[in-house]
Structures
1.
Amino acid sequence: MSPVLAGVLQLLALVATLGLSYRPLGDHMARVYSSERHLRPEKWIYRAIGARPDTGMRWPAYLRGVLAFSAVSVLFLYLLQRAQGSLPGSLGFVSIDPDQAFNTAASFVANTNWQSYAGEQAMGHVVQTGGLAVQNFVSAAVGMAVAVALVRGFARTRTGELGNFWADLVRGVVRILLPISVIGALVLVACGAIQNFSGIHEVGQFTGGTQQWNGGAVASQEVIKELGTNGGGYFNANSAHPFENPNGLSNLFEIYLILVIPFALTRTFGRMVGSLRQGYAILGTMAVIWLGFTALMMWTEFAHKGTAFELAGGAMEGKETRFGIAGSSLFAVATTLTSTGAVNSFHSSYTGFGGGLTLLGMQLGEIAPGGVGSGLYGMLVMAVIAVFLAGLMVGRTPEYLGKKIGTREIKLAACYLLVTPALVLGFTAVALALPTPPHSMTNSGAHGFSEILYAYTSGANNNGSAFAGLNADTPWFNATIGLAMLLGRFLPMVFVLALAGALAEQRPVPVTAGTLRTEKPLFAGLLVGTIGIVTGLTYFPALALGPLAEGLAA
Amino acid sequence: MNHSVGNTGRLLAAGLRALLVLTLVCGVLYPLAVTGIARLAFPGRANGSELRDADGRTVGSSLIGQTYLAGDAPDLRWFQPRPSRGLGTNSANTRYDLVLSGATNRSGDNADLIGWVTDAKAAVVRDNSVAGHTVRPEDVPADAVTSSGSGLDPHISPEYARLQVHRVAARNGLAVARVDRLVAAHTDGRILGFIGEPRVNVLELNVALKELADRQ
């Protein structure tokens, strides 16, 4: 069998397994977020928090919950790293410096998982398992909570209430993320991922002597790293490390984990707004973009344009033998079209166009299918923009899901759209204009520019993958990427929740002959076009200076 | 004013309590439960898939690539792995000598990478051309001259393994056909016929080769 055919079959296997879990998982999540019942462990948790889970919150209260929980999380994770040197169970590793500790705390709370440290030599068991892995769960649950609040904004009328943040947070963890993680972690261990609490120990080698290994609760962290679209590796090499991703099957399983919740949330959305077909339209839009990117990525990586790759006879630099070109390309697209940022191969050593695709995937706003929660709310904001554009064309007040998209709604959607590009392009421009930041580049010319553009794109979009040639462990990059991650995560959430509040207050608009049918393929096409135009107008000049210049020169 | 400060304080306290409870659930109970089950069900894999040779000596992990050197140069008796130029050394916590996984992160037009690939190709051709068997540059597969993502790739492609057969046979005084069969026996196909890529585990192959050579 040719590698290309094997790649296509792996893609089809992914489509099939995602399809099989779409209905049960999507419906399960809809029940979780609509149920009136509380499980017993959840009641204990609410009592410990001191929360009343049945109290409905208006958008400002919901937002205050998100921000308070996240602020406490940043502070806790920062202090945990700063105290690592004195904590037991830390393998004797030293405390993390303030700039790096801030960067890492911001990174994991913002669901980005950008890493300016090398896991195996910096973070002990306590920080990895008790700090970073916990944020993998809760930052994902926060994203899902905000998405569900927006969906409720569409579904509810004449109320300002969007649900209870604490209940949504706890349910997301207890009823969705934890059960899948337990099963998934065991699947990964069965494939060969490690799961222990060993200290650093010596293991014999073939030619004599020993090598030093550190143990760790790797499988349990790996599974939620993918499932929660987090992406922070236990080891420096992330999912390229054989202890995180031991074989082709674990690789395909990890790609599945990355995609399963973001895709299934469109079903949850359809259920909750009372029209499954509205969910299918969003799903179709996401799937078209994902499949298109995957096809392009496989094509360019198999074609291996670039001096070094042509010399080598294949683009295998930075890729593992057991995954090959196909398994690596599938992973690279899934990780950058969601907010994951885990890597099983190193994007900096992709072909010029391949690297450009990973950048562009993030710049779409990570909405195809996007991060857990953030993908859905990002896509719904795009849908609001699309109905607005359609409304302009026919001269009608735009509506979406029975809600008027008026001045207030469109302003909030536009603000949402502007945040990330402003952060990405602003920080990139400043970093390049200053004398020292460019010293961090490994490659020069167009690729060096891409390293910095990639870093801020990844940070502000909460992806976390890197053109890792960039030495990002400097005070400048730690501080600015840390800020980009926090602002890129929480400012959009402010606009999303405000939008949700505005929508929930409205009375429904009856469907008439003139209503744009947003459940039809035509609308999905319009949505794809809108995403393309908005992203293209925003990022084309920057992409032309980086990956396009490199790809055309090859 | 005082009212809102009190509110903010109460909210932050609730956030802290939520974080602590969820840390207990997701950061303590969950990993301990998974570790417990994993140790019972898959003890070898949970601890790193350690591999022993015929004498019962631990020779590493079947998942972690090693180097097979004589001094600084490749020991040509053994099958050689892929280059691993992305591997790092401890820069923090230097009391340890941990293997630091990683990639080179060089782009296709990078002068370093072009030089490394050129040199690696020349070395593979030189090392594997033995009397009566010449390796041509176009026979060298891509994995033989490029570094992997982790720097710890335990595998090479079947093409690269077969390319080394003549050399390994000559250096160990074995018949080429015998070593060929050894490589074939250690070649894993795609899982279920289409998942992943065909590959040869270098450590497992070398352990078997050593056994064969010792029996000779």
2.
Amino acid sequence: MPETFDAIVVGAGPAGNSAALTLAREGLNVLQLERGEYPGSKNVQGAILYANALEQLIPDFRDEAPLERHIVEQRVWMLTEKSHVGTHYRSDDFNEERPNRYTIIRAQFDKWFSSQVKDAGALVICETTVTGLIRDSRGKVVGVTTDREGGEIFADVVVLADGVNALVSQKAGLRGELKPDQVALAVKETHYLPRDVIDQRFNIKGDEGVVIEAAGTITAGMLGTAFLYTNGESISVGVGCIVSDFAGSDISPYDLLERFKEHPSVRPLLADAELKEYAAHLIPEGGYKAVPQVAGDGWLVAGDAGQFVNSLHREGSNMAMTTGHLAALTIAELKREGRPMTAANLSTYRKRLEDSYVLKDLKKYRDLPTVLHKNKQFVTAYPELLSQAADTWFRVDGVDKRTKERSILRNFRRGRGLIGLVGDAYKMARAFR
Amino acid sequence: MSQPPNRPQPARSKGLPEHLKDYRGVWVVVEAERGHAHTVSWELLGEGRKLADELEVDLGAVVMGPPEPWLDEVCAEAGAHGADLVYRIADPVLHDYRTQPFTQGLTALVETYKPEILLLGATTLGRDLAGSVATTLATGLTADCTELAIDMETRSMASTRPTFGGSLLCTIHTLNFRPQMATVRPRVMAMPKRVDGTDPKIIDHPLNLAEDDIITKVLDYVLDRDDDKPRLAYADIVVAGGMGLGSPENFQLVIELARVLGAEYGGSRPLVQKGWIPADRQIGQTGKTIRPKLYIAAGISGAVQHRVGTEGADMILAINTDPNAPIFEFAHYGIVGDALKILPALTEAFRTRLTALKGAA
Amino acid sequence: MNIVVCIKQVPDSAQIRVHPVTNTIMRQGVPTIINPYDLFALEEALCLRDRFGGTVTVITMGPPMADTSLRKALAYGADRAVLLTDRFFAGSDTLATSFALSQGISRLAAEAPVDIVFTGKQTIDGDTAQVGPGIAKRLNLHQLTYVEHIDSLDLEAREITVRRRAEGGVQVLKTGLPCLITMLEGTNSIRFASMDDMFRAARTRLDKWSAKDAGVEDMQKCGLRGSPTVVKKVFAPSPRTEKAKIIDIAGLEPAQIADAAIETLFEANPELHEDLRAFASGA
């Protein structure tokens, strides 16, 4: 006799956990399936947690969740071979009672999150891969098949939170394949350093943390960024670039990461650190235009599987949590009202997404991926020009300031042309509008 | 050590209980089975000699086996390798190794003659026996030691062994219990010089156990065929690979180089865990300890667990892409490069040289 | 037939790191697994149960988090799981560990007689191979270590015949029940649990026993106090004064690198060259 549940959640990342937690709390009989050995085992280490989305689900998460450091300083760097130009924003206001952003180690965090899901009453089964969806005669999804013997499991509705590759929905024909220009490949490493050394190098204390994001020459003309996060006793460092860019070059992601780590502005921060682990993963960066159909007959999609990532603001896990939560609320409402999980009834999920920051933000930046992708000067020419400008401006060498100003302007004009400069400004303005 | 504590514990009361104070002497259990003594026993006698000299006590060897001429030869060999005394139990029920009679015999010897230190080889026999005897005597046993020393202040043995899967070393004492027991793997300690003409004092002890009292029976003993057994521990040249090789297919490169050199081959622990190579090819603390003239390590990072198994090599050549790999800390020569390219080149270069040498000869 | 399998949850040793400055273990984020050697014991136990009927109970001593491994063992097909967890057990060496486990097994045996206790060959974090023999001694079980095959089991005659790996050969041993078997690696491979097993494991309640629950009367025999061995010092190996001499290979092709390496080796140890000459001339 096959098992039957009110809902099956596929995946135990932030989206799946939020969905399963919410559904269980709403009193539904929930099964969550995760292919990894344990929740988080498939995840690379360092990440940023935005408190707000989690707070909606678990208001006092700060008391228990394994958090590394709260971020008090954000650095944004434009890199050239030898230099960086950038802004640092640091504020003691970030040392608030309920800080807004944290660095976390995903493997530990996801495990903790999963324990909350179990406590709420969901049945969580790991090391089990969902191989397909079961449909009834009318095509409504009524369950899943797994890779285990006797692996058919039935449910009124299936939440697909199976991550960026979204293999289940892809296989079921609910969406197309990922397009190489809509997905970034990120490689990450974790380097161990003693806590006090990190504190000293980044001028922080206690649980304070720093995040550095960098773009420029280091991504070798490709669209992407590099990043560095401080954890409690380690530093996460990584580089991400759009997959289609790698295809057209002989540079590997690891080459870029090596280059970033060897950069004179970065190397001292990592000196004497011991490499703990490395991993690669994909980030959906297609933005608004890449978001697939989010619900259908007996199914909904949440998190990376739905391409809910704001690449400009590096928001992904918060959107995952929010979309998982909203998917669950949609289901719970139908269940309460005794209405079937049809495509029409589940379509209110899309409405909920549109009313939330998720689709509002993605819509706002809907053109950004294309603009950046077609205008590589933003990651190639500009960092170089900015660096030259800064060098000219700060170097005290007997040249008068007016000449320096002129020289800087001349460089920019030579680099991009006057029309190019104006055009770039216009494109950027539109993309951010 | 089931759950080795992270930090050293505060020393407990230093005083040895009164009834344990008359425990004196260093003993080595000589592993003799089916007519042969295991060489680890002689290595241990060499190490035991040092401990006994420092403590100014006798070095005793325990020899248990059937009353056959070969047992007398083992006793004499024990003397030749440094034992002052031999405690012998010769009884027909000791024809084959079995836990029960050997535990009973060794326990009786310890309770009668009270040694302060008892060393055994970390072999299948030694570990089987040591675990059983230590539990019977309710005393401390430290497995797989790589270094033994005496802390004269407490007159206790400091047993050093890798811990946490071989990432760290720890020094363990058995302060308030006697004897202090330890096992050591073959080839970890150096073989002492054999001295002929020693005449160790032999003390015979009865077993008092009838065959009918022993439930376990040995139905058969199937000797290993010599040709399918790796002789890693005793090879002059050893070539080994690690996870840096990337795939089990690439491990073939190691085998080819070994074949050209007439060497033995092996690998690091993760390879065994991944099933790339059989367990008897594992080199390191939990595998084989090797002492070759030349050891070539390709794509092996060199964790402590590997280090302690290979440090006895005369010369270590390490090939690794990571210049910071720990193996370069203890190798003699290093090549920072891709083993997948360098191994075949080495194979070819050695092959060319050997052909030339052969032509010359 | 009732079988008990002792397992241990261990850090995945490949990923353990030592703090470069304080030399302490950094456990943070290190995944834990069932000691790989124990899986051979578990599979052997499950096979025997499938053939002869009865139950397989897994037992472990460890912190509350060790329930993960027990659950996994249940998913593989074990019928029951017992977690011995108590702060009194903390800091146990092998003697104290075998004491705690044998207390737990005794309590199980009081409910239904135990025929075979299985353990792995050794753990990958302690590598001592001492707990199995310790349990056998304490519970007066016939001790069969390094078993590579169970030839026969006769429940009526209460006899078992096994092949035991010895140095240089294999002993064929026959003994009586109850016995303790430490299983050698590579003897089988753990099954892939069915979906039903996964559900059963996820829903089974674990037995969590404190020292008192397990019937321990003398706490002096537990944990740190019951451990004769004392860890005096934990340290990283001192780096050799001389690090490896790195052979300069800048700009060289693999063939040139090989030549450079061989020249260096022969120069450093001419004896090697002689050995090779002897080998070439057909030794």
